[in-house]
Amino acid sequence: xxxxxxxxxxxxxxxxxxxxxxxxxxxxxxxxxxxxxxxxxxxxxxxxxxxxxxxxxxxxxxxxxxxxxxxxxxxxxxxxxxxxxxxxxxxxxxxxxxxxxxxxxxxxxxxxxxxxxxxxxxxxxxxxxxxxxxxxxxxxxxxxxxxxxxxxxxxxxxxxxxxxxxxxxxxxxxxxxxxxxxxxxxxxxxxxxxxxxxxxxxxxxxxxxxxxxxxxxxxxxxxxxxxxxxxxxxxxxxxxxxxxxxxxxxxxxxxxxxxxxxxxxxxxxx
Length: 270
Known about the structure:
This protein has twelve helices and seven strands. It has helices at residues 4-7, 20-33, 45-53, 59-62, 70-73, 98-106, 128-131, 151-163, 180-197, 199-202, 208-218, 223-269, and strands at residues 10-15, 37-41, 65-67, 79-83, 95-97, 115-119, 136-139. A seven-stranded parallel sheet has the order 3-2-1-6-4-7-5. Helix 2 crosses helix 3, helix 9 crosses helix 11 and helix 9 (180-197) runs parallel beside helix 12 (223-269). The model has no long low-confidence stretch (mean pLDDT 83).
């Protein structure tokens, strides 16, 4: 197995969990395989309190970090992976099976990267909004007749696949990736550019923000490339807004000129 220091860069993120037994089982699996960092997003307070106060609850649960939304929970992470059984939903991001996905995650363990592995609620899984924060999706191969797993089981299976077979781990990548917070800034600037250009008016959609975020995630930007994209988009937005301001000013000047001419004509007529 990999050393625990390398596992310290992985954040297991539980989103909107409601069952204290499942929260406890997930924490137990993390402790079993040496992953110490747990984050919870908008948990059902009663369930989370029960899980923390249960007999045998570990320091891992006691030190879990709480967040109100997924964006904040993954803001400092350079790779965000969402687990899903998909069911009838269509994947909007690349979908990888557990074995291949674990190999890609292992490549980034042990560096300055922070990696988030998201698990959804027991009943509904991850929402489309939560999934839009992910670079790609991970699926545990199961029978189609019984495709979904218990939350605690899913966490255990994923962490086992990450932890076992040290020989399968490749040297960590040296590339520094843009964090999720930087991705959010680029997404916001892209939406500003689309709004200023009139694109969103011509192509209205209720999930424009989710689509834009998924698009930016698929670029898999390095930190330096992220700064370049942000700078380019800022310049585009500035130019578009300057052009709009100039048009309004010109229209105002023309209207004022026409009014002056009309007034002058009336005065001359007198």
